[in-house]
Specification:
By secondary structure, the chain is mainly alpha-helical. The protein has a single domain, classed as Heme oxygenase-like (Heme Oxygenase, Chain A). It has 12 helices and no strands. The longest helix has 30 residues. About 35% of the residues are buried. The mean pLDDT is about 90.
Length: about 230
């Protein structure tokens, strides 16, 4: 299969997966939510947000392409807030948590769900120990491509239930826009290394591993938010 056709087929598989169309996301977008339910979701999800950059920095040194750092510069700049820590993605998320009524110390005292820990540790391990194609699959198609669809459900639920302004949910709306571009950056690099069946299989395995961890994460969130 040609690289572009392979990527399109993989993206379609991801969009249709239960991780991206998870029952939690569908309920979050359609049900009536209490502030406590939103806080419970937000505190667990923040634990994923604050470590994503580690997956990038684990993977980058092992990519053989000399221009990989240049390709990823936009992604890094966006993650770090375009040179100001006050607009880094974790900082924007903390602004959201404050908006929904949480005090600053709240996100430092969170007991992680087993599914949250599994997601973080699974991605740290695969980006440290797996080959770069496997890791690219996880953080490219597995993360950056899937996020806009999942966050669209989240934004729908937040706007419906809490009447938040665009500024207050900027973390989510920004990702719906930015991660479309980030996915294209990853795909540019991926295309160079999926010319063979073996390369395509390895990258797909990494993406589906990430998606499986995401499904498990949403399973846990669904349990504590809607139980």
């Amino acid at each position: 299969m040609e690289p572009q056709a392979f990527i399109q087929a993989l993206e379609q598989e991801i969009i249709q997966s239960e991780a991206v169309q998870h029952p939690f996301l569908l309920r979050f977008a359609s049900d009536t939510l209490t502030p406590l339910q939103v806080q419970t979701f937000g505190l667990q999800h923040y634990q994923l947000v604050k470590v994503f950059i580690n997956y990038m920095t684990n993977t980058l040194p092992r990519i053989p392409d000399k221009d990989a750092a240049d390709l990823f510069r936009t992604v890094f700049d966006d993650e770090f807030g375009q040179h100001t820590i006050f607009r880094s993605h974790p900082a924007l998320y903390r602004n959201f948590l404050k908006t929904v009524g949480l005090q600053e110390e709240a996100w430092g005292r969170v007991t992680l769900l087993p599914e949250t820990s599994a997601f973080i540790q699974g991605h740290l391990q695969l980006t440290r120990e797996s080959d770069f194609l496997y890791a690219l699959g996880a953080i490219g198609p597995g993360h950056e491509f899937s996020i806009p669809t999942m966050f669209t459900y989240i934004v729908t639920g937040l706007k419906k239930n809490l009447s938040l302004s665009d500024e207050q949910i900027e973390y989510f709306t920004l990702h719906i826009e930015q991660d479309v571009g980030h996915a294209k950056v990853f795909n540019e690099l991926i295309c160079r290394h999926v010319q063979t069946e073996q390369g395509q299989a390895r990258l797909r395995e990494g993406a589906l591993h990430s998606i499986a961890l995401r499904k498990r994460f949403w399973d846990g969130i669904n349990r504590v938010v809607f139980s």
